[in-house]
Amino acid sequence: MTLSFHAVTLDAVSTDREAMLVFREGRLLAVLTCLSDIHEDLRGHWFI
Question: Beta strand 3-9 with 46-47: parallel, antiparallel or unpaired?
Answer without folding.
Answer: unpaired
